[in-house]
Amino acid sequence: MPILRTLQEAGYEAYFVGGSVRDILLNKPIHDVDIATSAFPAEVKELFHRTIDVGIDHGTVMVVTKEETYEVTTFRTESTYQDYRRPDHVEFVRSLKEDLKRRDFTINALAVGIDGEVIDLFDGLADLRNKILRAVGNPHERFHEDALRMMRALRFVSQLGFTLEPQTFEAIQEYHSLLAKISVERINVEFVKLMMGSFREAGLHSLVESECYIYCPGLREYGESLLAFADLKGPAIPTERQAWTLLMSRLKMTPEAMRGFMKEWKCSNQLTKEVIQMVPALEFRLVHEWDNWSLYQLGRELALSVEYLLQYFDHEPNLAKVRLLYQNLPMHSLKDMALKGNDLMAHFDYPRGAWISSTLHALEQEVVEGRLKNNNESLLAFAKTFLEEEMT
Ligand code: ATP
Ligand code: MG
């Protein structure tokens, strides 16, 4: 409010716009607050003590306050989209209407002024009430201008449980192949939000029915698997790695294929590594109780994360039990083992080689599985027998 007031007192218009307006009206929690103004970026910067140029070419200045940062964006129009993504250039304008016109969906094209009045030039309020997702203006033109909007539409279906207005849906079906022009990173962001939405089933069905999935990385052959993913009943998936894990568990790929798939999606190495561990652990947990070795290898966080996923398969997760089992493991990492590689070298007269790590590994598993006490003496005794067999 103080930001809006400052802008207004300086003679400019200023409004809340975008997702925060939509989510407030839907009684949902909000995250980022976007402000739109008739002031040009240089004029915005003059009015506030602390600002950061985050996207000044696109008219966005970040205003920094003690508590928070806010994106303040100059009213703008976007013109001549030549490659089905991002506008060639943006033009700053002084009219709110021009700014709202370039927004994707009617429910995202609402503005709220300082007095709390909702400015609704495209019947977004009615669409909010009727739970309808409708493109602003001619949907064919809008998706042709920027193909990412199709993925945004599908993720809003999944997040909000709204229905695609028929012509909007038709236009998506018509232009789905333009998604091939959009960078994987941007598709990834929307796809993850789609997987994590409360209305995942509807979102995934729209993804398949519109055939947009064909133009998503690596999914061309997996329409049926996406529907199998959609069939999993349960609450919104809480984390990104759980979402990928459930998806991958339905795609039934080898670990190598998973790695390639997630690379195509430009997922981070860390995320990929975690998912490749979680998928087989989930398959395992669906038919077995946890054992020490699986828990140990997976680690506490991933094991809890996998346990939570049981509910999507009609199994009851028992997180407290996993915490306890994990806590009671004889050790939690190789660092906890009472015998180190150096000790092995000192005691056994073999030349340095692979025997060290294979012995450590055997000891590690014996200790974790509770067959061997974690003290120097028992470990050395075991190593001796182990090596006698190994080295002959
Ligand atoms: P979220 O709650 O996920 O942030 P959002 O609707 O706020 O959803 P943002 O990406 O933060 O999404 O965009 C803010 C606003 O900018 C949108 O509400 C919409 O008005 C507009 N917008 C964003 N991306 C596009 C786009 N590709 N085409 C047209 N308008 C867009
Ligand atoms: Mg937003």
UniProtKB/TrEMBL annotation:
<feature type="binding site">
    <location>
        <position position="19"/>
    </location>
    <ligand>
        <name>ATP</name>
    </ligand>
</feature>
<dbReference type="GO" id="GO:0160016">
    <property type="term" value="F:CCACCA tRNA nucleotidyltransferase activity"/>
</dbReference>
<dbReference type="InterPro" id="IPR032810">
    <property type="entry name" value="CCA-adding_enz_C"/>
</dbReference>
<keyword id="KW-0479">Metal-binding</keyword>
<dbReference type="GO" id="GO:0000287">
    <property type="term" value="F:magnesium ion binding"/>
</dbReference>
<keyword id="KW-0808">Transferase</keyword>
<feature type="binding site">
    <location>
        <position position="32"/>
    </location>
    <ligand>
        <name>Mg(2+)</name>
    </ligand>
</feature>
<dbReference type="GO" id="GO:0004810">
    <property type="term" value="F:CCA tRNA nucleotidyltransferase activity"/>
</dbReference>
<keyword id="KW-0819">tRNA processing</keyword>
<feature type="binding site">
    <location>
        <position position="155"/>
    </location>
    <ligand>
        <name>CTP</name>
    </ligand>
</feature>
<dbReference type="Pfam" id="PF13735">
    <property type="entry name" value="tRNA_NucTran2_2"/>
</dbReference>
<dbReference type="InterPro" id="IPR043519">
    <property type="entry name" value="NT_sf"/>
</dbReference>
<feature type="binding site">
    <location>
        <position position="149"/>
    </location>
    <ligand>
        <name>CTP</name>
    </ligand>
</feature>
<feature type="binding site">
    <location>
        <position position="152"/>
    </location>
    <ligand>
        <name>ATP</name>
    </ligand>
</feature>
<keyword id="KW-0460">Magnesium</keyword>
<dbReference type="GO" id="GO:0001680">
    <property type="term" value="P:tRNA 3'-terminal CCA addition"/>
</dbReference>
<feature type="binding site">
    <location>
        <position position="34"/>
    </location>
    <ligand>
        <name>Mg(2+)</name>
    </ligand>
</feature>
<feature type="binding site">
    <location>
        <position position="149"/>
    </location>
    <ligand>
        <name>ATP</name>
    </ligand>
</feature>
<feature type="binding site">
    <location>
        <position position="103"/>
    </location>
    <ligand>
        <name>ATP</name>
    </ligand>
</feature>
<feature type="binding site">
    <location>
        <position position="146"/>
    </location>
    <ligand>
        <name>ATP</name>
    </ligand>
</feature>
<dbReference type="GO" id="GO:0042245">
    <property type="term" value="P:RNA repair"/>
</dbReference>
<feature type="binding site">
    <location>
        <position position="152"/>
    </location>
    <ligand>
        <name>CTP</name>
    </ligand>
</feature>
<feature type="binding site">
    <location>
        <position position="103"/>
    </location>
    <ligand>
        <name>CTP</name>
    </ligand>
</feature>
<comment type="similarity">
    <text>Belongs to the tRNA nucleotidyltransferase/poly(A) polymerase family. Bacterial CCA-adding enzyme type 3 subfamily.</text>
</comment>
<dbReference type="InterPro" id="IPR050264">
    <property type="entry name" value="Bact_CCA-adding_enz_type3_sf"/>
</dbReference>
<feature type="binding site">
    <location>
        <position position="22"/>
    </location>
    <ligand>
        <name>ATP</name>
    </ligand>
</feature>
<comment type="subunit">
    <text>Homodimer.</text>
</comment>
<dbReference type="InterPro" id="IPR023068">
    <property type="entry name" value="CCA-adding_enz_firmicutes"/>
</dbReference>
<protein>
    <recommendedName>
        <fullName>CCA-adding enzyme</fullName>
        <ecNumber>2.7.7.72</ecNumber>
    </recommendedName>
</protein>
<feature type="domain" description="tRNA nucleotidyltransferase/poly(A) polymerase RNA and SrmB- binding">
    <location>
        <begin position="161"/>
        <end position="212"/>
    </location>
</feature>
<comment type="function">
    <text>Catalyzes the addition and repair of the essential 3'-terminal CCA sequence in tRNAs without using a nucleic acid template. Adds these three nucleotides in the order of C, C, and A to the tRNA nucleotide-73, using CTP and ATP as substrates and producing inorganic pyrophosphate. tRNA 3'-terminal CCA addition is required both for tRNA processing and repair. Also involved in tRNA surveillance by mediating tandem CCA addition to generate a CCACCA at the 3' terminus of unstable tRNAs. While stable tRNAs receive only 3'-terminal CCA, unstable tRNAs are marked with CCACCA and rapidly degraded.</text>
</comment>
<dbReference type="Pfam" id="PF12627">
    <property type="entry name" value="PolyA_pol_RNAbd"/>
</dbReference>
<feature type="domain" description="CCA-adding enzyme C-terminal">
    <location>
        <begin position="238"/>
        <end position="383"/>
    </location>
</feature>
<dbReference type="Pfam" id="PF01743">
    <property type="entry name" value="PolyA_pol"/>
</dbReference>
<feature type="binding site">
    <location>
        <position position="22"/>
    </location>
    <ligand>
        <name>CTP</name>
    </ligand>
</feature>
<keyword id="KW-0692">RNA repair</keyword>
<keyword id="KW-0694">RNA-binding</keyword>
<feature type="binding site">
    <location>
        <position position="19"/>
    </location>
    <ligand>
        <name>CTP</name>
    </ligand>
</feature>
<keyword id="KW-0547">Nucleotide-binding</keyword>
<keyword id="KW-0548">Nucleotidyltransferase</keyword>
<dbReference type="GO" id="GO:0000049">
    <property type="term" value="F:tRNA binding"/>
</dbReference>
<feature type="binding site">
    <location>
        <position position="155"/>
    </location>
    <ligand>
        <name>ATP</name>
    </ligand>
</feature>
